[in-house]
Amino acid sequence: MMASRSPGLAPSVARFRWASSHTRRRLSHAQRWGISLLAALLVFAWVVPLFLDADPTRQDLMSTLAAPSLQHPLGTDHLGRSMLARVAAAIRLSLGLALLSVVTAALPGLLAGVTAGWRGGWCDRLLSTVADCVLALPGLLLVLMLAAIAPGNFWTLYIGIALVLWVEYFRVVRSATRILAQSPQVESSRLLGFGRWYIFRRHLWPELAPQVTTLAAFGAATSILAVSSLGFVSIGLKPPTAELGLMMTELFPYYQEAPWVLAQPVLALFFMVLSFHLLAGKEPQ
Amino acid sequence: MNRVISTLLLQRLVQAGLVAWVVGTLTFILTRALPGDMAFRIAAGRYGYEQVNAEAAAAVQAELGLDQSPLIAYFHWLSDLLSLDLGHSLVSGESVVSELAHQLGHSLDLALMAMLLALVIGVPVGILSGLRPNGWVDRLALVSAVALRSLPPFVIGLLLIMLFAVQLGWLPAAGHGGGSHLWLPAMALALGLAAVSARVTRHGMARVAGSPYYAFSRTRGLSEGQTLARHGLRNVAVPVIAYLSVQLVYLVEGVVVIESLFAWPGIGHALVHAVVARDVPMIQGTALVMGLLFVTLNTLVDLVSLYIDPRRRLS
Predict the structure, then answer these.
(1) Domain extents for chain B?
(2) Could you tell me if residue A90 is inside a domain?
(3) Which range marks the domain in which residue A179 is found?
(4) Measured between beta carbons, which residues in chain B are less than 8 angstroms from residue A137?
(5) DSSP letters for chain A
(6) Alpha-carbon distance A27 to A199, whole Å?
(7) Rounded average pLDDT over B67-74
(8) For the domain that residue A255 is a member of, what is the CATH number?
(9) Which chain B residue has its CA at the smallest distance from A274's CA?
(10) Based on the structure, what is the number of domains in chain A?
């Protein structure tokens, strides 16, 4: 309040406002594609099943591996279950889990990263050691071992993925905060007597936000890939859950008779991960 | 130089210790979380389900010290791990170490072949794209990199099986035998790795090709090939090798899934089977070796990048 009223600072504040709103509005071409793709997937997963009969577990053994029809617009699988219902349910599961684990990873990761970068000292050392423990093993191995404790459980998968993901936020936020905390603008804010929350909102968050959103998009893709990989090797969720990796394992033996049925979970997975990679706005990592 | 190498090796040694601790702790929790009474389970394993009674279970409990506190049991567990006493597989009865010795070679074959293929595919594509940024090679490479990264290795593997094994019949779909069995699983891993390597190479190449020393070399009259060989390749190699350590996560995770898909008799395959069978000693052994493989490959990458980039040796 004081700072914005003083005449000397006004232009820089104005420029800062402009810059932040400018970067917020400027989405790249690829990011726009990513958003449209994600929106299409959301509509497919949540809206379409409202209008059609959609029970992902109802079997009809008289019409297995049926071609697309009015009743089953995407055909049926080897047990006569509607593929539309199953693919939609699997996308809901993947996106829901991705959103949940990204949010639960981002908040503690951000909090721990800002604390470690700002406070330094033993706090930083302690949190960095915890992060090193998680990073010692490749993420999927950690999720896999946690999944072994309670096989087929949605919540162990979720905890494992969130546990792996938070470290990324922590590392990026910590190193950015270390530099920002030493910067002149933070120092002068502190000298003017502004509180921590104000400094975080005014000086740290605008710098951290783009990096955190990029990480969130990649994190969502990682989570989707992890769930489907574990499902594929039959360690993740158990049948009859509609899960993309699991569906591929189940449908692969029928590839010769009904290739289009196998193609559906493959395409759904591809488009989901693609949409998040495009949304991240960076080249693949 | 020696100080840089020794701090680096020390860091990796600490990481290896963390791997052992994390794996040991998680498998210990796993033994505690298994349902049923542990003494009864072990007695059943020894004498068969018909022979088990309360006395047998009590004898087992006294012999193995199962009634001790969890904390003491945990320290026993970790000290066994440190003395490399990994126990015996609950499924095959073989000692875990001898099973791992069999499988490690196969996993190494696959991982190294995949890395090699990734470099053979990725680096030339990246150099071609970097020499003509935004040319058609560059655009095509970007689109394929984004597409390949949006597919997990097992889907790439499935597509390769359909194309090369089922449709064309050129290569065996799965299993382990002559050299031809290695191609498809290694390729399934390599394509994803190559996608990123190509992009990293492309950015490195574009930066080098736009640098003053590169232009000067051309104005001195060296041909494009000579300039590339003398001033380009080594400079481009620095980020490409450094980035390999980031990609090792993808590689090791991919090995687990790809070995299961192609029934490749390596450690990843064994790990997945051990988890399905709840064979705790094998889970511990395979996860431990997978983790240590990850650390070892990382150390190798570190040493290679020190070797090719003299600037890093000074800091």
Answers:
(1) 20-82, 101-314
(2) yes
(3) 29-44+75-280
(4) 19, 22-23, 287, 290-291, 294
(5) -HHHHSTTTHHHHHHHHHHHHHHHH---HHHHHHHHHHHHHHIIIIIHHHHS---TT---TTSTTPPP-SSSTT-B-TT--BHHHHHHHHHHHHHHHHHHHHHHHHHHHHHHHHHHHHH-HHHHHHHHHHHHHHHHS-HHHHHHHHHHHSTT-HHHHHHHHHHHHHHHHHHHHHHHHHHHHTSHHHHHHHHTT--HHHHIIIIIHHHHHHHHHHHHHHHHHHHHHHHHHHHHTTSSS-TTS--HHHHHHHHGGGTTT-HHHHHHHHHHHHHHHHHHHHHHTS---
(6) 27
(7) 76
(8) 1.10.3720.10
(9) B150
(10) 1
The phi-psi region of residue B221 (left if phi > 0; otherwise alpha if psi is between -120 and 50; otherwise beta) is: left
Task: Note the CATH number of domain B101-314.
Answer: 1.10.3720.10
Q: Cβ neighbours of residue B302 under 8 Å, at least 6 residues apart? A: B8, B12, B245
A137/B199 touch (CB, cutoff 8 Å), yes or no: no
**pLDDT at res. B36:** 66
Is there a contact between A284 and B146 if contact means CB atoms under 8 Å apart?
yes
Q: Are B29 and A150 in contact (CB under 8 A)?
A: no
B95, β-bridge pairs: B88
- Which pLDDT tens digit goes with each residue over B150-193? 888 999 998 888 888 777 777 777 777 777 788 889 999 999 99
Alpha-carbon gap: B212 to the closest alpha carbon of chain A (Å): 27
Of the two residues A118 and A6, the one the predictor is more confident about is A118
Distance from CA of A68 to the nearest CA of B (A): 23
CB within 8 Å: A228 and B30: no
Say how far apart CA B186 and CA B198 lie, in whole Å: 17
Indicate yes or no: CB of B272 within 8 angstroms of CB of A269. no
Q: Do B261 and A228 touch (CB under 8 A)?
A: no
Would the CB atoms of B199 and A150 count as touching at under 8 Å? no
Which residues in chain B are contacts of A229 at CB distance < 8 A?
152, 154, 253, 257
Residues above pLDDT 90, as percent of chain B: 9
A chain contacts of residue B30, beta-carbon cutoff 8 Å: 145, 148-149
Are B290 and A138 inside 8 Å of each other by CB? yes
Q: What is the model's pTM?
A: 0.82
For residue A244, give the chain B residue with the closest CA.
B155
Of A228, A227, A219, residue with least CA distance to A166: A219
In a domain, A179, yes or no: yes
pLDDT value, residue A100? 93
Q: Which residues of B, range 227-246, sit inside 8 Å of A by Cβ?
A: 246
Are A284 and B149 in contact (CB < 8 Å)? Answer: yes
Let me know if residue A144 belongs to a domain. yes
- Tracing tokens 């996308």 back to the chain, one arrives at A91
Give the C-alpha separation, B43 to B10, whole Å: 43
Categorize the per-residue pLDDT at A12 as very low, low, confident or very high, splitting at 50, 70 and 90: very low
- Taking an 8 Å cut-off on Cβ atoms, the answer to whether B276 and A149 are in contact is no
Q: Is B195 on the interface with A (CB under 8 A)?
A: yes
Chain B residues closer than 8 Å to A270 by CB: 147, 150-151, 155
Residue A22 lies in a domain: no
